[in-house]
Amino acid sequence: MQLKLTSQQETGLRPLLEAAQRTEFYGTWLETIATPLSRCLDLLPHVECRHFDENREAFRNPRSGRLRQPEFRYPLQPSPKILMLLEGFQRSGSVRNVFDLGPSAVAGSKADTLAAPVSVLRSMAGIAGPQRYPIVAFTGVRHGTLTEADRELFWKSFRVPVFEQFLGLSNELVAEECEAHDGLHVREEETIIELRGGELVFTPLGALAYPVLRIATGCAARPERSLCPCGRAGLRLMEIVPIAKERGAHDVRGAQKARGAAAAW
Ligand SMILES: [Zn+2]
């Protein structure tokens, strides 16, 4: 099935491909940027998180400036005081980063709620106690998935709902849970999502300093395009679950084989 892009995605994809062309990793893959751009994207291999981490310099775009850290967006407004337990977001007024505080300050924190990777929330479940506002659980390529058992544990421990945020390699927001708690809304204006051989693969359009296309998530998901009970339209990811796999850092042969079977949403 041919990958279909929105006009906004098409516009965002060109500068990303041009940035990728300047990197060591994509130099040979992208000698020319041919149209349609979706076809160009379709010829690229998918990239595992580990491969990116181990070969970071190969993905650097020498003509781009410093990597800009993403802003953390709390799902409800106005934002309460948040204790952030994940490094790599921009500093902001409502967020106290735990990495700026000593251990004793964490225990005495006056924050209203927590934002942390799902694994950190699991280990804090018996310690942190009830929160005043919904917690944010980070999942995604570096943090895994959030299960129903996690939701029950967090409800019992923190006494507030949880909002899941699915993050990419550098904390960029790929998909987020809304107040309807019915799947995750994909940020389609900033991300291209594909399902390849059953695996969720995404391309963050804004990653011009370190362009990485078709990032493998290790997860499967069901795409849903019906109107969400919250009133928002667009693509949602339902039932995100880890998939078992054994393969190399970036499986080029697998990518070529899967190309015929790749489905685009
Ligand atoms: Zn919604």
What share of the residues lie within helices?
A: 10-25%
How would a crystallographer describe the biggest sheet?
9 strands, mixed
Task: Count structural domains.
Answer: 2
- Low-confidence stretches at least 5 residues in length (pLDDT < 50)? 247-265
SSE pattern, N- to C-terminal: HHHHEEHEHEHEEEEEEEEHE
Strand order of the largest sheet: 2-1-3-4-5-6-7-12-11
Mean pLDDT: 88
Cα distance spanning the termini: 9 Å
What sort of overall outline do the alpha carbons produce when their principal axes are compared?
globular
Heteromolecules bound: zinc ion
Strand percentage, roughly? 15-25%
Number of helices: 8
Please report the total strand number as a whole number. 13
Derived from helix and strand composition plus strand pairing, the structural class reads alpha/beta
Any idea what the radius of gyration is?
Answer: 19 Å
Structural account:
The chain has 2 domains: 7-66 and 182-264, no CATH class; 82-171. It has 8 helices and 13 strands. Helices cover 23% and strands 23% of the residues. Residues 247-265 have low confidence and may be disordered. β8 and β9 form a beta hairpin. The strands form 2 sheets. It has a 9-stranded mixed sheet with strand order 2-1-3-4-5-6-7-12-11. It has a 4-stranded antiparallel sheet with strand order 10-9-8-13, covered by helices on one side. The protein is an alpha/beta fold and 265 residues long. Zinc ion binds at residues 178, 180, 185, 228, 230, 232.
